[in-house]
Amino acid sequence: MSTIVQAENLSRFYGVVLGLNNVNFRIRRGITGLVGPNGAGKTTLFRLLTGQVKPSSGTITVFGGNPWNNPDVQARLAYCPESETVPAGLRPLEWLTGLGMISGLSASDATKRANESLERVKLAPQYWKKRITTYSKGMRQRVKLAQCLMHAPELIILDEPMNGLDPMGREEFSQVLRELARDGTSVLISSHILHDLEALCSDFILLRWGRIPNAANQEVASAETRKRWPEATTIRCEEPEKLARYLFDQHLLRGCEIVPESDTLHVRWRDAEQFYAGFDRYLLESGVRIFEVRSTATFLEKAVGPGPSLDS
Ligand SMILES: Nc1ncnc2c1ncn2[C@@H]1O[C@H](COP(=O)(O)OP(=O)(O)OP(=O)(O)O)[C@@H](O)[C@H]1O
């Protein structure tokens, strides 16, 4: 896969405050996850990528060019910040059409492009002419993404686009991104929801205190080296002891811990592959009523390590 972004000895300081400190990385086509605790330097990296700030030292190239003050490079990018950017009183179809026209498209071309963008993000057409004020968080995120797609960028940069979405909403949003990547649009996405990112991304950049932690973590971050299934799982259920006994009898457990007051069982697998290959059968056969199954101790969590407020 070809490299679209390359950073060499890249640093950005804000006065004496360290934003990004001497990092080297490359981003290939596809979907890349950007992971790090608060203050790790993710937004700084986005600003450098999109040419909003200049490196203090080192270089960053995007599609082979320097993004700073370079409209040719910037035209090939789209940036979707974490904050709400779409005026709530507007309707998405007219909003996107208006933006297209401001950018120089004719009214009919702008409407066509707006339709295509809203279709791509799978926003149901009955909402296209409704006010964004009436939208759920997930629908607003889709409008933001549709706005990014209006100029058919080659790389979309998304800052925490899944914040506040429920698991179903996150999966649907992920599916939209997979389809974009399949059709040739690369994605760089930051998220604190690490297992979603693991399922979505083929590559990762791990940041911590403005640095990329170490060579070992970079190795962990490559998709080829990571394990497919989490080694640990948290299961909330009606009878955690009965479930633990059943899983033990199936020779699935390496270890477990029961938290009776929250009806929770923390499990470490002998062979996670074996459990996940037949998890529906195992859980049914156990005869225990299951409320929630959540993966824990993902490779990303281990790689990034505990941070000031790294949620998972
Ligand atoms: N404009 C600025 N002026 C001074 N310091 C800044 C500025 N922008 C960022 N910083 C500092 O640079 C460091 C990295 O911040 P950055 O916003 O890039 O991190 P982040 O990973 O995006 O954090 P978060 O997840 O909280 O958004 C922090 O210590 C931050 O305080």
From TrEMBL:
Signal peptide: none
Keyword Hydrolase annotated: no
Keyword annotations from UniProtKB, A to Z: ATP-binding, Nucleotide-binding, Transport
Record-linked Pfam families: ABC_tran
MF (Gene Ontology): ATP binding; ATP hydrolysis activity
Highest taxon of the lineage: Bacteria
Residue intervals of the ABC transporter domain: 5-234
InterPro entries for the chain: AAA+_ATPase, ABC_transporter-like_ATP-bd, ABC_transporter-like_CS, ABC_Transporter_VariousFunc, P-loop_NTPase
Record protein name field: ABC transporter
Lineage: Bacteria, Pseudomonadati, Verrucomicrobiota, Opitutia, Opitutales
